[in-house]
Design brief:
The complex is a heterodimer. Chain A is mainly α. Chain A has 15 helices and 2 strands. Chain A has helices at residues 2-26, 29-54, 62-78, 83-107, 110-130, 132-135, 157-180, 182-192, 194-199, 204-230, 247-257, 264-278, 284-300, 304-317, 325-334, and strands spanning 148-149, 152-153. Chain A is globular, with a radius of gyration of 20 Å. The two termini of chain A are 25 Å apart. In chain A, 50% of the residues are buried. By secondary structure, chain B is an all-alpha fold. Chain B is built from 11 helices and 2 strands. The longest helix of chain B has 31 residues, at 2-32. The model of chain B has no long low-confidence stretch (mean pLDDT 88). Classes of the chains: A mainly alpha, B mainly alpha.
Chain lengths: 335, 292
């Protein structure tokens, strides 16, 4: 199976990279803007994939962290702070809040954890909406300045696109290194069998909290980038709901792409962010089709699109139609 | 004091609706480990069945309600189970959660696309008048809502405790394997709980839609309240869901009146977090065994 998979994966990766690099020449400004949104949402989904896919902790609060990051950058840059300070601060604050939110995960699991994080997200949305002295309430914060890198302004959409793409790539690489490190293995151990992991000397408590904190921190980075991109922040995108940035939508993104697969979040973001734009003529029907697709995917392949691809490769290798074990263990882990 | 009584009664009435929604929610959990994230939308949809019956087929209100009840039990009960839950029951909890989130989106967008995004008036079950008891002006509508929800719960209790089928359903909820050994048709019992859930959301829909008008977004908040009610009371106990629902309705009303309308959701959410952290089995629930 590996023999098939690796060249195909590398080929796909090269093709995607090439496409992303030349994309600004191919699209109108709006298309570039949508691709930029895709890059930002991919980052948010990478964070959630770390928490959910690798460490197995259900979180319905990722949008809250995107929101915290976005508000930090929005408020501080409009008050004269440089972007980079706010970027770092967004990570640090979200890391800390995520760490605290991880404590419930030490006591309860699965759907209870989903409800706690859901409650947290809703609480934070209320704060964004009602604390007008800080967030300007429903009127939002506008005219968020765009940063410059070494005197090179990000005012032009193309520059900004490459800027965001670079962030996405750097954050992905950092996450990749993290997953390959002993920490990543510890995350997976916590997901697969926490009791066994504990008996083997893995400090499950610390790694559970870490998984939440790092996932949240990456969410904060994505929020910071989001603020710079759209230049206007109001509470609506960070609610629970089905806006592309909402927590439920982010969760669907990760699961549809393939939770626990490194490239799952990127693919999920394509389905949730890019496809609706390309299929604009379908309007409201798109969301309905998306919903049906999600349900069907959960019925046939709960490991997501990448799990599906894995399975197709596996069944080609084994004509008996037996399902390959990686897909199976991932399915069990998703429970 | 009169204010207090008025708030208390109207809180109980909304609480009754939360309780109905939450009871169905816990029933599904107990018999088939289904966490239905679309429960709020389940309450939103039947009202539109009624409106379609009245508007497109020219039925009188009562006939439209009967027709809607049948359609609801078939679509949200039988078809929901057969088409969505059955195929993925072996996948575990998370895929079902994701799929029902998808279902919620589908129902919301479907109503918006095919019926419209407006808020439609809905015939109330009682006239909008008040009666005065102990100096407090109580809306007849609140009292009717409360009476109907209590009635529905009592009927359900009688059915579950008093009939053979009801007991078989309880046995299924407690331990499906033993129930199967005892010769109970477990599959059919699970199907019954889905149908009962559909009937309950239909009743809740009839009660709440006259108050909030029929709108495709009605389910969002209601679903959240149903979760909270179920968890506060105890996820694996029907009584818990009832107590949780009523408590939530009253607390919510008092918060809105005496503390802050903007932050009315905070108190229930805070309750939710505290309960989950310190008493995850809920106020009335029993501890579930953990599997290793």
């Amino acid at each position: 199976m590996r023999a098939y998979r690796k060249p195909a994966a590398i080929l796909a990766l090269v093709a995607c990279t090439a496409f992303l690099l030349v994309a600004p020449q191919l699209f109108k400004p709006y298309g570039v803007f949508i691709l930029s949104i895709w890059a930002v949402m991919s980052v948010a989904a990478i964070g959630l994939n770390l928490t959910l896919g690798y460490a197995g902790q259900v979180s319905l609060a990722q949008a809250a962290f995107v929101g915290i990051g976005a508000y930090i950058t929005a408020w501080m840059t409009t008050h004269g702070w440089p972007f980079w300070t706010t970027y770092v601060l967004a990570f640090v604050v979200c890391f800390a809040v995520g760490w605290v939110l991880g404590y419930p995960a030490l006591r309860v699991q699965h759907h209870y954890l989903a409800f706690v994080t859901l409650a947290f997200n809703t609480l934070l949305y209320l704060v964004f909406r009602n604390e007008e002295w800080l967030t300007n309430g429903i009127y939002g914060i506008s005219n968020i300045p765009r940063p410059s890198v070494l005197g090179w302004s990000m005012g032009h959409p193309h520059n900004l696109y490459y800027f965001l793409l670079a962030h996405m790539v750097l954050i992905s690489i950092a996450t990749w290194l993290l997953i390959q490190s002993p920490w990543g293995r510890a995350f997976i151990a916590v997901r697969e069998n926490p009791i066994r992991a504990l008996s083997l000397g893995v400090d499950t408590r610390r790694y559970t909290l870490m998984a939440f904190a790092i996932g949240a921190g990456i969410g904060g980075l994505s929020g910071s980038l989001y603020a710079v991109l759209v230049q206007f922040i109001d509470p609506t995108p960070f609610a629970l709901g089905a806006t592309p940035t909402g927590s439920l939508s982010l969760l669907l993104m990760v699961v549809v792409g393939g939770s626990g697969y490194f490239f799952g979040p990127f693919l999920g973001a394509v389905v949730a962010v890019l496809l609706p734009e390309w299929l604009r003529f379908a309007q409201g029907y798109y969301l309905m089709a998306y919903a049906v697709f999600v349900i069907a995917l959960m019925v046939y392949c709960p490991t997501g699109l990448l799990g599906l691809i894995d399975r197709i490769f596996a069944s080609r290798k084994k004509p008996s139609g037996e399902v390959a074990s990686p897909a199976k263990t991932a399915a069990e882990a998703a429970q | 004091m009169t204010d207090f009584i008025q708030l208390f009664v109207s809180g109980l009435a909304t609480g009754g609706i939360y309780a109905l929604t939450a009871v169905g929610f816990t029933l599904l959990w107990q018999t088939s480990q289904t966490i239905n994230f679309a429960q709020g939308e389940f309450v939103m949809l039947p009202a539109f069945f009624v409106l379609i019956g009245m508007g497109y087929f020219g039925m009188p209100f009562w006939l439209a309600v009967v027709a809607a009840m049948i359609v609801t039990v078939i679509t949200l009960g039988v078809i929901f189970k057969r088409l969505v839950i059955d195929p993925m029951i072996t996948h575990g909890v998370l895929p079902i959660v994701i799929a029902t989130i998808g279902l919620a989106i589908l129902m919301k967008e479907g109503v918006r696309e095919f019926y419209g995004a407006d808020a439609w008036p809905f015939p109330p079950l009682a006239a909008a008048t008040n009666i005065t008891i102990f100096g407090a002006a109580l809306a007849v509508q609140s009292l009717v809502v409360l009476a109907v929800s209590i009635g529905a719960v009592i009927v359900l209790q009688l059915f579950l405790n008093g009939t053979r089928t009801g007991r078989a359903m309880q046995a299924t909820a407690q331990n499906a394997n033993v129930a199967r050994l005892l010769g109970i048709p477990v599959e059919r019992m699970i199907l019954y709980t889905f149908m009962i859930n559909a009937a309950l959301v239909m009743i809740a829909s009839l009660l709440i839609t006259p108050i909030y008008l029929a709108k495709f977004t009605n389910g969002e908040l209601l679903g959240l309240y149903a979760f909270i009610a179920a968890i506060i009371g105890g996820f694996n106990q029907m009584r818990g869901a009832i107590v949780g629902g009523l408590l939530l309705g009253v607390v919510d009303n008092f918060t809105a009146a005496y503390i802050s309308t903007q932050y009315r959701l905070v108190v229930p959410l805070f309750f939710l977090i505290v309960i989950i952290l310190f008493r995850p089995q809920g106020l009335l629930g029993r501890v579930e065994e953990r599997t290793v």
